[in-house]
Design goal:
Bound molecules: uridine-diphosphate-2(N-acetylglucosaminyl) butyric acid
Number of helices: 25
Low-confidence stretches: 1-27
Radius of gyration: 34 Å
Helix content: 25-40%
Largest sheet: 10 strands, mixed
Strand order of the largest sheet: 8-7-9-6-10-11-12-13-14-15
Number of strands: 40
Mean pLDDT: 93
Shape: elongated
Amino acid sequence: MKPVSEDCSVTAQAPPQTGSAAGSARTLPLDLPAFLTREQHRIHLVGVAGSGMSGIAALLIELGHAVSGSDKVSTTETGRLQRLGLRFHEQHRPEHASPADLIVFSSAIKSDNPILVSARDAGKPIVRRAEALAAIMRSKRGIVIAGMHGKTTTSAMTAHALREGGLHPSHYVGAEIPILGINAHWDSRGEYFVAEGDESDGTIALFHPEHTLVLNVEEEHLDFYADLDAIEKVFAQLITQTAGKVFYNVDDKNAARLCRSFTRGISYGFGETADYRAVDIRLKDFGSTFRVNHRGQDLGEAELNVPGQHNVHNALGVIALASELGIAFEKIAKSLAQFEHARRRFEIKYDSPRFLLVDDYGHHPTEIRATLKAARSIGRKRVLTMFQPHRYSRTKALRKEFGRAFDDADRVVVTDIYGSNEAPIPGVTGQMIADEIVAHGHPGVRYESRLEWVRRAIGNMLESGDLVLSLGAGNIHEQLSALAADLVTAEKLKEIVGEDGEVCLYEPLSKHTTLRVGGPAQFWVEPRNEKTFAKLIRFCREENLPLFVMGRGSNLLVRDGGIRGAVVHPCGGDFEKIEINGVEVTAGAGAKLKEVAYAGKAAGIGGLEWLEGIPGTVGGGLRMNAGAMGMQTFDNVVRVRYLDANGEAHTKTRDELEVYYRNFPLLAKNFAVSAVFRGEPAPLEEIVRKLHASQEKRRTSQPAAKSAGCIFKNPDTCPAGKLVDELGLKNLAVGKARVSEVHGNFIVNDGGATAAEMLQLIEEIKATARAKRGIELETEVQIVGETG
Ligand code: EPU
């Protein structure tokens, strides 16, 4: 066996970049394959939580080594490895690695990492992840799966096919694969070792496999490679170092060009020249079927349960390889039919008749196009995509290609770049990609810099029949998972409100408040009758889901973080019904107070005219005993029907109710359904005159601009509007929030104001009233929700 230093000559071709990698590995005086696979040692892994590193840790543990590892984060992976015997440290401390005989480090680890520094000083052997993997592989018959896209899926399919074929392969793939049980496994019974080769840092040239499968070759990882030529050189070296056969995708022009001249090359693809050829390809939802032809001979039909044409290519590579290893086609086909996706590879996160949520790791334009094509072929109504670009260098290098990659998406929401271990490049942001997609002519693109806002945007545009796809190699999938979790609740709420009711996710409350500020409602729910409202109350109680009831939002200031839980808006149906009975007007909680006044006018009922001046609904007017023109709601209300916290209905008469100035405490914990207003018979001219007086009062003394009505309750000593006026605070502004010049107790939104600006202005007014007049102003407007 050759010493490792000879094998690992890759640094000569592709030196790690200064500052971003840990520097060249030492020349080792040890026989690494023997050290790792035939002896037992203490080994420490720096950056053990990474998807590749955790696989090495699993292999080393299975090989009988005492393995320790460090990382700045702990993950479910490190937890699982700890149960297998890993000694894990959530910090990179030299003393934790000092007993180790060998250090293995991830390419994400920088050269000044304290463990690496101290190991170097101590003259301890240090190797890169890929060197360790290549050395472990040398003790078996290695099979390397290489290429820019589809490696994880294809290496997992290969390992599974070989396993089903009875070959007991060992394997190493870059992600958790449910069907394989674990991302890396050492099987001492078998001869073969299937590994996903990582081309990102040139280390695939470390491998000396028996067979290589080349999926595709194109421009990628331009943070590391100068150009396509440099990438091809590394692939060419891998091919030269392959002792047995090289399987290659003949439909990929770069792969074909590189491999064609190799004497032991075996091609696969769709064209007639391919050694292994797929014909009669039928793509279907989540899969495909095709027949396989080997140099003119029909081998049989294959069925895949992973979607898209790109997976037909991947599977064809596996069929070619496994067939050449002597596995019968029937066995290969059976294993492929069983194969399920790797984590984050077209992974279905939520599936219901109304919505389908899929996550994919795709982060290169070619992958994005293939994944979107597969998503489109499923035939749902629309494809909505959330995309998180990965790495500044890739974003910069491939910006034009990204701009053209989203044609199969109906809507795209792009967020900012997930930098991985890269430092930001000035001017390179997610906005740049969004701009490129727009420039390419896509009509449905939007940029949201904050990650959770992507979920809000997509969740809010959801319509029954949509497919949502999260794309990216960073942490965008967490947003899709959160969306899936909320959809479970949203669908239950929808079931309660029925066909005519409405449920929306992340509805911006700025659309539902007269002030036009406020973040989203986690669940916006519109019941149409008392029965469904009662069911909602019971559901929220059982599920521990906060419930907030909202009318017209005319006396509401919702903070920028929105409202968690269900925001119930009783409207339409029974809630907007108005009935006349003698001098009584019965109105649903969702009816506008203004309409009560006009219904009274139509029926010749006077005394209700002042209600014309209150912008809210019956429910809102009751909740705060709203007032105008010297009157208040309960001057007219004679009965209230409401639901209690258990969803039980009650009707109470005025004399049974406790009512205060701008406060009706019963509705703090109960929910209004309807109210009966009593007026008195009056001549039409008198009603018209009073309505007119109310309109005139509003027109002349109140601003027409967007507001929440009066902000403060009137203190005993002086009306709040007069006080603010006297303090000279009219037109005082914080951002786009401004005290109205028309009326001092109104704050108006000059366009795009935030709740934070509104609240700051309120505080400034209160502080001035306190300091200058000793008056403690109390807000009348209800302030709710989370800070943004
Ligand atoms: N005033 C000023 N400067 C101002 C505003 C008012 O000097 O900038 C003086 C007025 O000239 C008047 C006194 O302050 O002498 C009271 O003002 P106004 O008549 O406008 O009544 P208000 O008490 O400010 C109340 C309700 C309003 C309702 C009006 C009209 C409260 C807190 N406000 O306002 O209700 O529309 O009467 O009936 O009770 C609301 O609650 O959201 C609301 C707008």
